[in-house]
């Protein structure tokens, strides 16, 4: 019996020292597997972070079967397989197709359930769209059929595609492949990439607004618009963080604005991390004046619709901040005049709703690519880094990884280098 039991091996596929590989599951004193632990370099460590597999022989052939990521379920699957192979229980009747395991479509559905349970709505939508793209271009049907060549095929496909007449950014392509790998590996795929497989990407300079842009921009704002974009500029908050800012998030005495979860509005901070950012007391005074005339729980709610009372009752987050930013820039005459493309509009014709594409140029419409909300965040970070350390900036921005914050150091060093260049002996020869 013991020999039969041990002919079913339980192992885990996980990343070890940066590489994906199989490692054995630890065993207890009686020789049964303990899937809470795996053995790496002779040492037992936690099994968190990998997918369990059963390895056994079936009709003389070595078989491998993915059984998920939960230790309790892995142990139960091992016991069941041992019982089936020793004849203690009858195997369940399965359709022939099931022998191949999960289809890619089923694996995507399972993975998205996990994403929806643990990530924000925006992240869920992005993952769903990227995986739909993968499913559209995959030539395989089953997860067990996937290998390195499928990832390389996605790299090639990404380089062929055009969006608004332009090729996809290599970082976008790499992100799509990363999401595919994470999703399929979590559902049992064994895809091992080689060291040189990942195409190089260009690290773009952090874009920020200059004083000669901000002055005319704020001059073109009405008081409501000015306050909205002053909050963006002085906090480094993301779009949804400003849209969901509530009066209870303001610490009037200490002069701080907080990012906090609001389940009733469907808002969760990115990385599930709440934080507070100090702002100038002059901005606190303007916010206090606004609060006296506000009947909403939110600082910047969506305005009530003039003819549709059910839409935007004054307590919904502002949903058009990006459009407002572009409108102000256009009004101030700050558009570059070179952006052009197409946008989608909804058309109602004899009661039938449809969409159509319309061309635009940013010299005649508020659609300049140089004006976007995240650029206020870059401007805040680059400027505030001159006064605080990198760790403090990481906390203020709500970055999970300090490596994300360090990109602002490069811009700061270049600004400091400018002063040295101007005062160098070389400048005297110009």
Description:
The chain has 430 residues and is of the alpha+beta class. It folds into three domains: 92 residues, no CATH class; 83 residues; 162 residues, hpI Integrase, Chain A (Orthogonal Bundle), CATH 1.10.443.10. 40% of the residues lie in helices and 18% in strands. It contains 15 helices and 13 strands. A six-stranded antiparallel β-sheet has the order 4-3-2-1-5-6. A three-stranded antiparallel β-sheet has the order 9-10-11. Helix 12 packs across helix 15. It is elongated and about 80 Å long. The termini are far apart.
How would you sum up this structure in a few lines?
The protein has 430 residues and is α+β, with helices and mostly antiparallel strands. The chain has 15 helices and 13 strands. Mean pLDDT is 87; it is low at 1-5 and 94-99.
CATH C-level name of the largest domain: Mainly Alpha
Largest sheet: number of strands, sense, barrel closure: 6 strands, antiparallel
Q: Name the average pLDDT.
A: 87
Structural class by sheet pairing and helices: alpha+beta
Shape: elongated
Total strand segments: 13
How much of the sequence lies in strands comes to: 15-25%
List the helices and strands and how they pair.
Elements: H1 2-6, E1 9-16, E2 19-27, E3 33-40, E4 43-46, E5 51-58, E6 61-66, H2 71-85, H3 104-118, H4 121-137, H5 148-160, E7 162-163, E8 166-167, H6 170-186, H7 211-219, H8 223-235, H9 239-243, E9 250-251, E10 256-259, E11 275-278, H10 281-292, H11 321-331, E12 340-349, E13 352-361, H12 374-384, H13 390-397, H14 402-405, H15 407-422
């Amino acid at each position: 019996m013991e020999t039969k039991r041990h002919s079913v091996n339980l192992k885990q596929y996980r990343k070890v020292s940066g590489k994906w590989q199989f490692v054995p599951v630890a065993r207890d004193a009686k020789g049964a597997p303990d899937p809470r632990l795996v053995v790496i370099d002779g040492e037992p460590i936690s099994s968190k972070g990998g997918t369990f597999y059963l390895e056994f022989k079936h009709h003389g052939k070595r078989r491998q079967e993915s059984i998920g990521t939960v230790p309790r379920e892995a142990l139960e699957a091992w016991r069941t397989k041992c019982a089936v192979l020793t004849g203690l229980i009858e195997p369940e009747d399965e359709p022939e197709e099931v022998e191949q395991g999960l289809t890619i479509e089923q694996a995507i559905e399972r993975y998205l359930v996990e994403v929806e349970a643990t990530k924000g709505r925006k992240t869920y939508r992005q993952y769903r769209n990227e995986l739909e793209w993968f499913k559209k271009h995959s030539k395989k049907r089953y997860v067990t059929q996937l290998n390195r060549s499928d990832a390389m095929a996605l790299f090639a496909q990404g380089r062929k595609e055009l969006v608004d007449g332009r090729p996809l950014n290599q970082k976008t392509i790499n992100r799509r492949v990363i999401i595919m790998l994470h999703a399929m590996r979590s559902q049992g795929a064994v895809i091992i990439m080689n060291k040189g497989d990942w195409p190089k990407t260009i690290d773009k300079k952090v874009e920020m607004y200059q004083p000669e842009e901000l002055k005319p921009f704020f001059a073109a704002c009405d008081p409501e618009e000015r306050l909205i974009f002053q909050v963006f500029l002085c906090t480094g908050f993301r779009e949804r963080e400003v849209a969901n800012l509530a009066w209870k998030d303001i610490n009037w005495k200490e002069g701080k604005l907080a990012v906090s979860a609001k389940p009733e509005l469907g808002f969760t901070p990115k990385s599930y991390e709440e934080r507070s950012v100090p702002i100038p007391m002059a901005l606190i005074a303007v916010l206090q004046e606004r609060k006296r005339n506000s009947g909403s729980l939110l600082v910047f709610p969506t305005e009530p619709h003039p003819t549709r009372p059910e839409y935007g009752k004054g307590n919904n987050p502002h949903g058009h901040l990006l459009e407002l930013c572009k409108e102000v820039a256009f009004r101030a005459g700050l558009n570059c005049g070179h952006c052009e493309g197409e946008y989608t509009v909804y058309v109602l014709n004899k009661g039938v709703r449809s969409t159509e594409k319309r061309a635009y140029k940013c010299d005649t419409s508020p659609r300049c690519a140089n004006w976007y909300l995240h650029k206020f965040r870059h401007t805040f970070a680059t400027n505030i880094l001159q006064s605080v350390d990198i760790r403090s900036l990481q906390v203020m921005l709500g970055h999970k990884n300090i490596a994300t914050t360090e990109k602002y150091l490069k811009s700061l060093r270049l600004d400091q280098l400018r002063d040295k260049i101007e005062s160098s002996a070389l400048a005297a020869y110009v």
